[in-house]
Specification:
Layout lengths: L9 H24 L9 E2 L1 H8 L3 H9 L6 E3 L2 E5 H10 L5 H19 L1
Antiparallel strand pairs: 1-3, 2-3
Helix pairs in contact: 2-3
Length: 116
Amino acid sequence: MTEYLTFDQLPKAVTMLTKEVSELKRLLIEKQEQPQTEQPEKLLTVQEAAQFLNLTVPTIYSKVSKRELPVMKRGKRLYFSSIELLEYLKEGRKKSNAEIEQEAETYLSNNRKELK
């Protein structure tokens, strides 16, 4: 049920709203100033990379030899960046039908403008 304010109640309501907006602004600024907790880069061994990607160690070696995985080599040892492996996983992400439809609509609307 909606309550209606009388003219006499307006100053009090505006003051209350102003305080609420000020508090929201303060909270937003405070949140922006907090450092973002990015996941630090961690170097993984072959075994750890296999566990991270849920693959077998021989599969990791196979993907490295085919240059499918980002890898660093020092001596005879291989190291993998946890951040780069996460990016590798994200590259394999399939788009949803909604995302594909949105891209198609955007593409078509941009091309229609060019045809005019």
